[in-house]
Design brief:
Blueprint (H helix, E strand, L loop, with lengths): L2 H19 L18 E5 L4 E8 L5 E6 L3 E2 L1 E9 L2 E8 L8 E7 L4 E8 L4 E11 L2
Antiparallel strand pairs: 1-2, 1-9, 2-3, 3-4, 5-6, 6-7, 7-8, 8-9
Length: 136
């Protein structure tokens, strides 16, 4: 295994552990959360998968796209607050992806979205991390 793959694997594990144990040092300050911070393009380095968050609406719905590498239909995308962290939930509904979901948490200090991908077709959950590719 190359050093870069080992480092990426270690970073994914660390970020996933932060989600699992919901470390409070990454919590948002008291008040209304700035959900707009997740707007932008996010890439998953272990496969080039892309989440493009175009807008976050006042009702918590999210205008987003998912690409692998072509577009995969998103049935539902919502943002909320979970234990002080911004949580992005995406449900996919497309050929090969029916009912698959991403549950991602925003970590400001790493400018990363980390969490879990549930692949419904094989009923398995994977720890994942996305890094910001660009904003808006």
């Amino acid at each position: 295994m190359t050093r870069n793959k080992i480092e990426l694997g270690a970073l994914i594990i660390i970020l996933a552990c932060m989600v699992c144990f919901s470390l409070r040092d990454t919590a948002l300050s008291v008040g209304k959360p700035d959900f707009e911070v997740i707007v932008g393009e996010w890439v998953r380095p272990d496969g080039g998968y892309l989440v493009h968050v175009r807008d976050v609406n006042p009702d918590g719905s999210v205008d987003a796209g998912y690409y692998n590498p072509s577009e995969i239909h998103i049935a539902k995308a919502r943002v909320s607050l979970w234990k002080g962290l911004i949580k992005l939930f995406i449900e996919l509904q497309d050929k090969g992806y029916p009912g698959s979901t991403y549950t991602l948490y925003y970590y400001a200090e790493k400018d990363a979205l980390a969490g879990f991908y549930y692949q419904a077709a094989i009923q398995q959950t994977f720890k994942v991390v996305f890094f910001r590719k660009s904003t808006r």
